Amino acid sequence: MNCGSSSIKFQVVDPVAERCLLAGQADRLNSDKGKLKWKQDGETSVESLPSPNYKGVVAKIFNIVDNVNFSYVGHRVVHGGEIFKQATVMDKENIEKLSKIASLAPLHNPVQTEVIRICQDRYPTLGQGSVFDTSFHSSMPPHSYMYPLPMEWYNTHHIRRYGFHGPSHQYVVEQTAKRMGRPLSDLAIVSCHLGAGCSIAATLGGVSQDTSMGFSPLEGLMMGQRCGDIDASILPYMSTKLGIECKDVLSILNSQSGFLGIAGTPDSRDLEDRFLAGDETAALAIEMFCYRVAKYVASYTVPLGRIDAIVFTGGIGEKSFIKRKKILDYLTPLGITFDNDINNENGKKSSGLISTPTSKVDVFVVATDEEMMIAKEVKKLFDEKV
Fold first, then answer.
1. Do residues 257 and 221 make contact, with C-beta atoms less than 8 angstroms apart?
2. Which candidate, 1, 197, 202, 257, has a CA 20 to 30 Å from the CA of 220?
3. Longest C-alpha distance within the chain, in Å?
C-alpha cells in the first residue's frame, strides 16, 4: 500500500520471483473525478469514483486484492523521523509512535497511519510492516545530515536533513550493481530519481552518504512544482512584499514554483514540446533543471571519493533523453561520454547502459519499482522474526 494525500497505489507482488500479480491505482481522491484502475492477468478494469471517500476507496481496494493470496501487508510511509530507521513491524506500540511524528509530514503520515490501522482491522492475522522514505538515508553521517542552526533546534525539535525516495534509490542502486556484474559493496553510485518530485542520493557500498532532499521534500533540486534550494530570506521578504503570511509564501514554494513557476506548466513533456518548438521560457526552465541536477551529481564526488556509476530513474529520469543529454553534457569534466542514439532509446536495447565503453563513469537508465522494494523489505523483516 502506497498512500498519498489524494492517491493510492497498490500491488500484490511475489518478492522472491520479483513478479507483480496485481497492480492498481486510485487517483484524484480530492476531487469529484476520482478513478480506480487495476490490472490482473492481463485484464485492465476501471471504476469511476464520483464522490470518493478515502476509507471507502481503501475498502474497494481490499475487495480487489482479496482475489489473490498474500501473506503480509507492506506500507510505504513518507517520514520515519529519527525513530524508524529501518523496515518496522506495525504493532500497536509502533503505530502510536508513528502517530506522534505526524507533524513531520502532515500531508502524508496521518493518512498512511490511518490506512495501517484500517488494514489491521481488515487483516488481523497478517503481519504488517512499514518501509519509510527516510530510513534509507538514516545512515548519513552527522556532518551530512546536520544543519548549521542552533543545536537546540535539533535536540528539541529534531530539525535535520532526512532525505526521501529511499525505496526508489535503494532499488535502482541494487539493480545497477547487478547490471554492472559487480558487488554492491564495491561501488560508489549516484542515483537520480527525477519525476514530479526529484532527489539525488550518493551511496557507497549501497549505503546512503548524502542526498539532496532535507528536512522536507522541498530542499534540493528544482522540481515540477517545488522550487528546491533557495535563499531562506526570500520568505519574509516576499511575505512583506505580497502582504501574505510566511506559510502562504511556503505554499507557493511547494506548489507554484519549479517548472510551473518558471514556465507555467509542471509537466515535463509539455515543457519539452514547447522547448522543441523554440519556446525560450521552456528552454530556460529545462536548462535550470539540468544545471542543478549536474551540480549536485558532481558535488557527490566529495562524500564518495569517486563515482563508479550514475543511474537515472523516475518519470523524467527514465523517459527524458533531452534532459539526460543536457545533464551529462554538463558532467563532461568527470570523463563521462555517452551514446546519443542509445540515450534517445532510453537504453532499452542495452540493459539500460547509455554510456560508451571509454566513459570513466558508467551511466544507466533503470525503471524504479518502489513497491517491489517495499515487498522485499517487509518479507525480509518477517523472515528474520521466524
1. no
2. 1
3. 61
